[in-house]
Amino acid sequence: MRFIAGPLNKQLLQNLLGEVIESCTRVRAAVAYASRDNMKLFEACAQHLKPLEFFGRYDHTVAVDSAVLKWFLDKASLNFDCKLVPDILHAKIIWWVDAGAYIGSANLSDRAWISNIEAGTFLPHDELVETGMERELLRFFEEVDDRARPLTKEIYQEQLRLADRRSELSKREYGLEQQFDKDRLLPKNHGLVFVDTKRSSEKRFQKFEQDWNDTLQVMRSIASRVSAPRRQTGLDRCVGGPRRSSRPIPARLLLQAGQGWKPPSLRGVLRQEFEEPGTGAARCTGVVALGRL
């Protein structure tokens, strides 16, 4: 078994495709979404003369790009079969029969294969047989096939018209995305293969800002916990139980106290001082930390 996480662990699906396409006897794939920017699986099957049975999703979003549908119609061959499952298909499985199978999260798109954080496993043929997974895959594709309908020219034309109608929606979504990018609270992630050209000073400031915001959130959490009605905890038992005359520390004082701290060291100290690992319960050393504030 191999863990396939793309650029994260240098195990790319396109490399896996190149490894197994020769040794397989045919390909069966159930992948919900297929984009025109990634036809690698289909083209590899055609190039190496491997029969292909593809199951995609059918819905109002044009889950399988019209260019992919046209590719199958143009082939007009029983060796390249496309079927669509209405509404409920969300699987991402590629079975190179007699070679192995990928089961994971990646759709057939360049973003999924190159830059997204995706995760899956590849099981070689021997493991599929030994573990009984080959029988499970056979049963899975039988069930999917029962719920699928073959691609027709009419379905292609319908999806093509729908794609044209969705172009206006795409423009509005793009405008919303642009506005969101101007005001977003978290920095944009351009993908795992993005090359960051920011100057080191900008990166340091961005890291400082992120740590500062994280620190304030930790302070808010501590403030709400300390300001809540007292009940006996491990902290109380350490100091002899809650004092009846004690009053909760105002949350605003705790937040104000945090303004003079530098985020990189504060966040770890607060979590270490105030919480027992894995429990969220206050520890006795928290009294010392509060005194320092």
How does this model look, in words?
This protein is an alpha+beta fold and 293 residues long. It folds into two domains: 2-164, Endonuclease Chain A (Endonuclease, Chain A, 2-Layer Sandwich), CATH 3.30.870.10; 208-292, no CATH class. The protein is built from twelve helices and eight strands. An eight-stranded mixed sheet has the order 1-7-6-5-2-3-4-8, with helices on both faces. Helix 3 (66-75) packs antiparallel against helix 7 (153-183), helix 8 (200-227) runs antiparallel to helix 10 and helix 8 (200-227) runs parallel beside helix 11 (263-274).
Low-confidence regions: 282-293
How much helicity do the residues have? 40-55%
CATH topology label of the largest domain = Endonuclease, Chain A
Strand percentage, roughly? 5-15%
Number of separate structural domains: 2
CATH top level assignment of the largest domain: Alpha Beta
CATH superfamily of the largest domain: Endonuclease Chain A
Elements, N to C (H/E): EHEHEHEEEHEHHEHHHHHH
